[in-house]
């Protein structure tokens, strides 16, 4: 499986758009936080301010999600056969590296991308925003990096 030209080592690319399932889950969590704050034991004015902050955070996040869904040129993550990552967005392509705290479980991958230009970023890949084959190959590549010949 680790031979030259195997499916394991083939390069691949991911055109990143937010996962609709993850967006719905985050929206439900924001909306669930409002009654939690209102039912808590904190003083009344603080409850109102905290609830307004949660709603403002939801509005801000929903604007970002809407913009990301409509983006005609989404960010593209590319991984080549030498385990080198590249990120292309807004017509700019640059090398990036993976942070050590990437998460890979069946059905969900969270990539921690270290970008010299935009800093640390996280890309959430679920079964509804990336092809199953790409997710499977990415899980394998994250777990077993390609051995480099020195």
Which helices and strands appear, and what pairs or packs with what?
Blueprint (H helix, E strand, L loop, with lengths): L11 E4 L4 H19 L5 H27 L5 E4 L5 E5 L2 E7 L4 E3 L2 E8 L3 E8 L5 H12 L7
Antiparallel strand pairs: 1-2, 2-3, 3-4, 4-6, 5-6, 6-7
- The domain tally reads 2
Helical fraction equals 25-40%
Rg over CA atoms, rounded to whole Å, is 19 Å
Helix and strand element order: EHHEEEEEEH
Number of distinct beta strands: 7
The N- to C-terminal Cα distance equals 20 Å
Number of helices: 3
β-strand percent reads 25-35%
Summarize the main sheet. Answer: 7 strands, antiparallel
What is the residue-mean pLDDT, rounded to a whole number?
Answer: 84
Residue runs with pLDDT of under 50 for 5 or more positions: none
Structural class by helix and strand composition: alpha+beta
Shape annotation: elongated
Keywords:
26% strand, 2 domains, seven-stranded antiparallel sheet, 7 strands, 3 helices, alpha+beta, 39% helix, 150 residues, elongated
